[in-house]
């Protein structure tokens, strides 16, 4: 079978007792590029955090399976080793740990014991990706995300994705805070990953990223559910006309959910 | 069991001890005067730590020689890990029990007049020089009972002297190995850097004594005008050793004293690190890391006292506590009247790895002058769950993620150690202790 399948069924998620996701259904197959759009506060980031296993998000109902394996039974690190990746909107800063040491640790963790990457090979691969993402090589020796600009943090997330080669990458607002040049570089790196063994779920509320990355499926999220699914033409229409027509069509007054609004 | 702080040492014992060491008269007198004071002086009172039940009296004080180590190719197993076999230091003293088992100083440094020898030899060969610095302007005999006790019972240590204008690049390393169980360590270290000189010095205390005993260590570091001293240390006393360590620095005009201390004892510890910034434009970074495990109780005080104008003192303390270990950090910046333009900053952080571990961080500023800068930061907390989540989301296991965060937390101080092998060794000790 080519690629992996992520299957989300009737997913309900709460944060501090507040239900944010109210029944999300979504299936991503190998090789597919999905985009979830939607205004702020509709539950997009909650979905990505819940898939990865963020400690503050509680799944109260529903299921997530990766190639038939129950993701919700897995620890965060197991999910990563199973092939999931989340480029975070607000990555943590880890003082005293160099980016390069961290990258090597995570690559070796994902590759598994006995299959560790030799140091020289690692450096070569890292350097190649640093060049491709036009990241200053000094960054590898800086402490992880510490003092990084917003743009550097985003590129660092994509760098990690490129090196870890996940089966399914969730990119949570990877485009926010990037200028147009950086956006192109990041998009190129994502497009380079395209193969039948790689799929992605891109979360954004700007259409502009889709000028560089062609999605196969476009979803719109409102009130903690996926309310509309279509092809690239859906994103186009949203860019041109905004969300009002959709809200009208669906009879939605307030698209937000929980306290995020 | 009653808590007995009364000593059984007599004048005769001290006189005999001094005579056996062939000490100069001034030393014998200093010892006897100190012994007199022991009874009248109070024990130190480290802020927020009760030490009344600690063992300060049960130990074997007698001078015990250690076997010679003729070749570094055949280092004893117990201390092997503390050296980098491919990169052995050229200037090295190994004190085994109380005697010197190995001594090496490069010809070049000898010719330049550098002294790097044990304290007893130094007292014989350079009596006046040692007398000038020994418990005079640095640590006073009568600060409290433990300093007086130290002066009376000193039974080991070294003397390091760098003459005027001599700059030493390659580090000087001293290893103090308490090999015999129950042996008391009353070690005295003096480091003197004369005008315009510079020096990197690193010391290690190694012990694996399962018997209860005491370490009472006084170290006095003098940086004269425009001298620069980088002082690194890794202390590694075993569980049943009660440790009192006093490291004092005196920095004169334009002088620098930088401390990088790994406090890795398993026995209850009081560590006091005071730097007196006497001269104008003097500078000190006092960095300490510690990892506590088991039932360790520890009190670590770093203090900079600013007398000179434009003097700068930076204190950085990072500690990790696991099991039921508890640690108090006191970071004190004291700016005296007249020390205008000075800057005193203290940062103290404790990371707790278990429910029972305890941490306390107290930055204190005492300022008697208007025209100064000062700042402090403190935190006591657990490993940040968001950092764990981030690392684990890249496939790193919980255990490994925690390990990375802890090493990272201690890294700012580890990185400052002046000798690569000691840095590596400290990392290994940290690794052993957090696992």
TrEMBL record, chain A:
Question: By its UniProt entry, which NCBIfam families does this protein fall under?
Answer: sufC (TIGR01978)
- The name under which this protein is listed is Fe-S cluster assembly ATPase SufC
* Domain ABC transporter, residue spans: 6-248
Known Pfam families for this protein? ABC_tran
Q: Which CDD domains does this chain map to? A: ABC_FeS_Assembly
Keywords from UniProt, A to Z, are: ATP-binding, Nucleotide-binding
Q: Which family does it belong to?
A: Belongs to the ABC transporter superfamily. Ycf16 family.
What stretches pass through the bilayer? Answer: none
User: What's the superkingdom here?
Assistant: Bacteria
Any one Gene Ontology MF annotation carried by this entry is: ATP hydrolysis activity
| UniProt cross-references to InterPro entries, sorted A to Z | AAA+_ATPase, ABC_transporter-like_ATP-bd, ABC_transporter-like_CS, FeS-cluster_ATPase_SufC, P-loop_NTPase
From TrEMBL, chain B:
NCBIfam families, per this entry? sufD (TIGR01981)
Biological processes, Gene Ontology terms:
iron-sulfur cluster assembly
Q: Which residues form the SUF system FeS cluster assembly SufBD N-terminal domain?
A: 20-173
Organism domain of life: Bacteria
Among InterPro entries, the record links this protein to: Fe-S_cluster_assembly_SufBD, SUF_FeS_clus_asmbl_SufBD_core, SUF_FeS_clus_asmbl_SufBD_sf, SUF_FeS_clus_asmbl_SufD, SufBD_N
Where the record annotates domain SUF system FeS cluster assembly SufBD core, the positions are 179-409
Q: Which family does it belong to?
A: Belongs to the iron-sulfur cluster assembly SufBD family.
Q: What is this protein called?
A: Fe-S cluster assembly protein SufD
Per the UniProt entry, what species is this protein from, by scientific name? Cerasibacillus terrae
């Amino acid at each position: 079978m080519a690629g992996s399948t992520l299957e989300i069924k009737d997913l309900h998620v709460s944060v501090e007792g507040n239900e944010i996701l109210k029944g999300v259904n979504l299936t991503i197959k190998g090789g597919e590029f999905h985009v979830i759009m939607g205004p702020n506060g509709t539950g997009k980031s909650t979905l990505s955090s819940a898939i990865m296993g963020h400690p503050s998000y509680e799944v109260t109902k529903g299921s997530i399976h990766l190639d038939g394996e129950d993701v919700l039974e897995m620890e965060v690190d197991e999910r990563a080793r199973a092939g999931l990746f989340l480029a975070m909107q607000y990555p943590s800063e880890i003082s005293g740990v160099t980016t390069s040491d961290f990258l090597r640790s995570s690559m070796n963790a994902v590759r598994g014991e006995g299959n560790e990457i030799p140091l020289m090979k690692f450096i070569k691969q890292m350097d190649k990706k640093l060049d491709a993402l036009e990241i200053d090589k000094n960054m590898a020796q800086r402490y992880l995300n510490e003092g990084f600009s917003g743009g550097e943090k985003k590129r660092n997330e994509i760098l990690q994705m490129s090196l870890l080669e996940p089966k399914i990458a969730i990119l949570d607002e990877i485009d926010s805070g990037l200028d147009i040049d950086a956006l192109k570089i990041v998009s190129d790196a994502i497009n380079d990953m395209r193969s039948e063994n790689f799929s992605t779920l891109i979360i954004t509320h700007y259409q502009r990223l889709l000028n560089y990355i062609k999605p196969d499926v476009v979803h719109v999220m409102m009130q903690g559910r996926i309310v509309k699914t279509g092809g690239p033409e859906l994103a186009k229409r949203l860019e041109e006309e905004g969300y009002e027509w959709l809200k009208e069509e669906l009879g939605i007054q307030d698209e937000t959910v929980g306290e995020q609004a | 069991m009653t808590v007995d702080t009364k000593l059984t040492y007599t004048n005769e014992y001290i006189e005999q001890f001094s005579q056996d060491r062939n000490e100069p008269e001034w030393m014998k007198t200093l010892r006897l005067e100190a012994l007199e004071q022991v009874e009248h002086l109070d024990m130190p009172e480290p802020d927020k730590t009760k030490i009344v039940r600690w063992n300060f009296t049960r130990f074997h004080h007698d001078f015990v020689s250690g076997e010679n180590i003729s070749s570094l190719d055949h280092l004893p197993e117990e201390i092997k890990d503390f050296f980098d076999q491919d990169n052995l230091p050229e200037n090295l003293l190994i004190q085994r029990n109380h005697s010197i088992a190995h001594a090496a100083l490069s010809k070049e440094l000898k010719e330049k007049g550098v002294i790097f020898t044990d304290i007893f030899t130094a007292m014989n060969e350079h009596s006046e020089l040692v007398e000038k610095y020994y418990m005079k302007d640095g640590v006073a005999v009568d600060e409290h009972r433990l300093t007086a006790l130290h002066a009376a019972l000193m039974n080991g240590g070294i003397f390091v002297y760098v003459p005027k204008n001599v700059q030493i690049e390659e580090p000087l390393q001293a290893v103090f190995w308490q090999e015999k169980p129950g042996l008391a360590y009353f070690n005295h270290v003096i480091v003197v850097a004369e005008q315009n000189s510079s020096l990197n010095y690193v010391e290690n205390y190694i012990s694996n004594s399962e018997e209860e005993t005491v370490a009472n260590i006084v170290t006095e570091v003098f940086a004269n005008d425009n001298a620069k001293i980088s002082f690194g240390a890794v202390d590694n006393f075993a569980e049943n050793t009660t440790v009192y360590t006093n490291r004092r620095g005196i920095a004169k005009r334009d002088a620098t004293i930088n401390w990088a201390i790994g406090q890795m004892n398993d026995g209850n510890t009081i560590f006091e690190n005071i730097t007196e910034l006497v001269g104008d434009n003097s500078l000190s970074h006092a960095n300490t890391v510690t990892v506590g495990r088991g039932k360790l109780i520890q009190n670590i005080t770093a203090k900079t006292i600013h007398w000179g104008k434009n003097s700068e003192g930076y204190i950085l303390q990072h500690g990790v506590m696991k099991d039921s270990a508890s640690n108090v950090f006191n970071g004190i910046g004291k700016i005296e009247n007249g020390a205008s333009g000075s800057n005193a900053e203290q940062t103290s952080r404790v990371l707790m790895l278990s429910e029972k571990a305890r941490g306390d961080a107290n930055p204190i500023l005492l300022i008697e002058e208007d025209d100064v800068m000062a700042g402090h930061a403190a935190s006591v907390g657990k490993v940040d769950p968001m950092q764990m989540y981030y690392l684990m989301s890249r496939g790193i296991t919980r255990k490994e993620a925690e390990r990375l965060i802890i090493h990272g937390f201690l890294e700012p101080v580890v990185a400052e150690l002046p000798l690569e092998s000691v840095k590596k060794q400290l990392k290994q000790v940290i690794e052993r202790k957090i696992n």
